[in-house]
Amino acid sequence: MNYPLDKLCIQVFKFDRLIRYAGVLDETGRLIAGGMRKGIASLEPASEGLRLMANLTIQIGTDKTWDRYFGGIQYTFVKRVEVNMLTFYLGEKNVMMISAESGFGLENMALLRDTVMTIYRTGIVPERVRK
Length: 131
What we know:
By secondary structure, the chain is of the alpha+beta class. The protein has one domain (5-39, 46-122): Beta-Lactamase (2-Layer Sandwich). The protein has helices spanning 5-15, 49-64, 67-70, 106-122, and strands spanning 19-25, 31-36, 76-79, 83-90, 94-101. The protein has a 5-stranded antiparallel β-sheet, covered by helices on one side. Strand 3 (76-79) and strand 4 (83-90) form a beta hairpin. The longest helix is centred in the last third of the chain and has 17 residues, at 106-122. The radius of gyration is 14 Å and the shape is globular.
């Protein structure tokens, strides 16, 4: 069972108020579900949105070339001054991209990723997220 992607993004926002963005991209980098949390302004100008998604898609595609040596990517975590970003695969081709305020650390991101994967694979929403 694969949980509906739009609903999955909603569950990500329910996980914590510090989540700014939850989106699912296809293999071309096109947004197919989710987006910015309502009421939150994007840090980058709208004109840079496509470039950001293209950069992410290229990075993830390039990283896949190392899978045969190191195994598949579980997730990628990027910590910046203003925002933390998490990316990971949903199935074979889609990528989940999540950004959060800088105070939302690696431990929380790892727990969020595990929670998202549980929901995606089983359709079961853990109590922590059901608010």
